[in-house]
Amino acid sequence: QVQLVESGGGLMQAGGSLRLSCAASGRTVSIYAMGWFRQAPGKEREFVCAITWSGGTTRYADSGKGRFTISRDAAKNTAYLQMNSLKPEDTATYYCAVDTDYRLGAPVYALAYDYWGQGTQVTVSS
């Protein structure tokens, strides 16, 4: 199994930046990709971005392109989500998740991910 712990959330004014971290532990050798998802109150969980663990190939949802950057430090078993130019609509609980199956690229759908963190709240005020 893989355990995930997110950190770095908080309250930020619109236009500001936050960096989220996701630390993995346990059977980290099984990680193929790590993704970030978010869920706002009353809305479904949505894909934000993802990265393959070995090659670092990334995918982004349109909502974050040009503003969000995902990266990983495989030696530290940690992934990061740098969020710039934050908007009030970015307010949500952000979750990291791990996919342990080999695929062609990091998946964008939540069902593909096997392990999830507990989430970290991001609130952006206008």
Task: Give the structure's gist in a few sentences.
This protein has no helices and eleven strands.
List strands and helices in order, with pairings.
Blueprint: E1 2-7, E2 10-13, E3 18-26, E4 33-39, E5 46-52, E6 58-60, E7 68-73, E8 78-83, E9 92-99, E10 115-116, E11 120-125
Parallel strand pairs: 2-11
Antiparallel strand pairs: 1-3, 3-8, 4-5, 4-9, 5-6, 7-8, 9-10, 9-11
> What is the average of the pLDDT values?
95
- The global form is globular
Unreliable spans = none
**Main sheet overview:** 7 strands, mixed
Molecular structure report:
The chain has 126 residues and is mainly beta. The chain is 0% helix and 51% strand. It has strands spanning 2-7, 10-13, 18-26, 33-39, 46-52, 58-60, 68-73, 78-83, 92-99, 115-116, 120-125. Strand 5 (46-52) and strand 6 form a beta hairpin.
Keywords:
126 residues; mainly beta; seven-stranded mixed sheet; 0% helix
